[in-house]
Write a structure and sequence with these properties.
The complex is a heterodimer of chains A (113) and B (115). With 113 residues, chain A is an all-beta fold. Chain A is built from no helices and eleven strands. Classes of the chains: A mainly beta (113), B mainly beta (115).
Chain lengths: 113, 115
């Protein structure tokens, strides 16, 4: 059973460009969570999605960030007009419908130059 | 609101020595508690979780943690450190509501193991 997959693993963007991060949850998991880890800090919750629905986006910056989890395909975290402060590791996690345990992917390390 | 405090951003031990990583939580309701390990440039792997009345929780790789409600603590221990234990360790808390389980993480403790 493949784990949570994220791609790309490393992404370099210049200031002002767009970053698209993809997350494929474990098979059978319909809940997806995105977390951000800034350098030397713990993970911070960003958004929680189920298929075609955003359930909680209380951790998302108000501007430039958006997330989706379509009926088909991976979950996407989109960052528009990236700035240096967006440089971080972005982790996706998934869980079964009724599970409390979240399974994490390897992360996407975004570097903004 | 829930929060987690991890005491000590770095802990150094010798191989074979006891490992003790400290975690204190704050929660208005009985929480679920977790310890995750992160190896360099990798994602988080669950070590163990506390979700029930059993206060001593055993996890993978010889780690265990004890939930102490009176001290609001969930410290992680391992009797004998191995070089392969060198990594970053995160304590996390979540609520017990059904459905959505947002994890709130501590800032992490980097474990260094010397020969």
């Amino acid at each position: 059973n493949a784990g949570v997959m994220q791609n790309p693993r490393h992404l370099v963007r210049r200031r002002g460009q767009e970053a698209r991060l993809r997350c494929s949850p474990m098979k059978g998991h319909s809940h997806v969570y995105w977390y951000r880890q800034l350098p030397e800090e713990g993970l911070k919750f960003m958004v929680y999605l189920q298929k075609e629905n955003i359930i909680d986006e209380s951790g998302m910056p108000k501007e430039r960030f958006s997330a989706e989890f379509p009926k088909e395909g991976p979950s996407i975290l989109r960052i528009q007009q990236v700035v240096r402060g967006d440089s971080a590791a972005y982790f996706c996690a998934s869980s079964p419908t009724s599970g409390i345990e979240q399974y994490f992917g390897p992360g996407t390390r975004l570097t903004v130059t | 609101a829930q929060s987690v405090t991890q005491l000590g951003s770095h802990v150094s031990v010798s191989e074979g020595a006891l490992v003790l990583l400290r975690c204190n939580y704050s929660s208005s309701v009985p929480p679920y508690l977790f310890w995750y390990v992160q190896y360099p440039n990798q994602g988080l792997q669950l070590l163990l979780k506390y979700t029930s009345a059993a206060t001593l929780v055993k996890g993978i790789n010889g780690f265990e943690a004890e939930f102490k409600k009176s001290e609001t603590s969930f410290h992680l221990t391992k009797p004998s450190a191995h070089m392969s234990d060198a990594a970053e360790y995160f304590c996390a808390v979540s609520g017990r509501n059904t459905g959505f389980q947002k994890l709130v993480f501590g800032t992490g403790t980097r474990l260094l193991v010397s020969p």
